[in-house]
Amino acid sequence: MIASLSTFGDCVTDGACLVNTGLSGLSVAMVLFLIASGLTLIFGVLRIVNFAHGTLYMLGAFAAYWVVSRMGGTDGNFWIALAVAPLVVAGIGGLVEVLLLRRIYGRPQYLQFLLTFGLILLAADVVRLTFGTEFKLISGPGPLSGSVSILGRPFPEYNLFLIGLAIAVAVGLWLMLQRTRLGRTIRAAASDREMTSALGVNVGLLFTVVFMLGAGLGGLGGALDAGRPVTIHPIMDVERVLQSFIVVVIGGLGSVGGALLGALIIAQVSAFGILLLPQFSAAFAFVIMAAVLLVRPWGLFGRPLEE
């Protein structure tokens, strides 16, 4: 305990340590945001709590691994994998929505849980049969494999790229939702799907598009994480989906802005908390979630659900 406090105190008084730790937390936050934004977007429009969303993240990582391994693992192939993986996962998401989820809209919520939990088990078994159970690794692009010096401390170039790309995606997502006809339709459906349908919008097609978009964001998060590199395995989704649900609960179900704020809070608290109390670092996210729920049960940017 005393050693942890000393480490935290040393970092607080060291500007380089503060910046480096903050940037590390930001890189984690950006991946969390990509995953959580897809999750909250799906809920906001479809009113489906997709417990299998972490599986989409895992499939994005495995899709990136498949592309890189099939094409020889050269630097250029990583960029191809980064483009292909979200599209593959979005296509899988579209099939899931059309063939399965469409059948349970308006049904009791326990059916959503059973179906999406079943998808988790099915996807894990398919991945094991296809890729085996051993851990996989892919290397990030060579030009981003080094480090840059920030206030005298090295910081991975790939993490800087990840932060920049995720910010660009966040801006693009905001512009799409606020400035395009599709975005206005999505926001209208999230507010009142019956009225949106009465105005002539093909709500069924819209639901498919939204689910594909949310799935693609989860797949992009998985592909980006795979390039750090992290180990790719059939249960890699467990930690990320738990963190993503915490992020969504804190930010508010259905709020993309809330997902960004929640991701920043959780990632930064975890990054600095591990310096302060490493043995309790995993509990910080739950403590924050509990505190937010006590004050605002619908999240920071969320709204009370109408019955």
Task: Spell out the blueprint of helices and strands.
Layout: H1 2-12, H2 15-46, H3 53-70, H4 75-99, H5 109-131, E1 147-150, E2 153-156, H6 157-179, H7 181-191, H8 193-198, H9 203-226, H10 237-251, H11 256-276, H12 281-295
Antiparallel strand pairs: 1-2
Q: What this model shows, in words?
A:
The protein has 307 residues and is an all-alpha fold. The protein has one domain (2-295): ABC transporter involved in vitamin B12 uptake, BtuC (Orthogonal Bundle). The chain has 12 helices and 2 strands, in the order αααααββααααααα. It has a two-stranded antiparallel sheet with strand order 1-2. A hairpin with a 2-residue loop joins β1 and β2 (153-156). The longest helix is centred in the first third of the chain and has 32 residues, at 15-46. The N and C termini lie far apart (47 Å).
Which structural class is indicated by helix and strand composition? mainly alpha
Amino-to-carboxy terminus distance: 47 Å
State which percent range the strand residues make up. Answer: under 5%
Determine and state the CATH class.
Answer: Mainly Alpha
- Give a quick account of the main beta sheet: strands, pairing sense, barrel closure: 2 strands, antiparallel
Estimate the helix proportion, in percent: over 70%
* Order of adjacent strands in the largest pleated sheet: 1-2
Number of strands: 2
Number of helices: 12
SSE ordering: HHHHHEEHHHHHHH
Number of self-contained structural domains: 1
Low-confidence sequence ranges: none
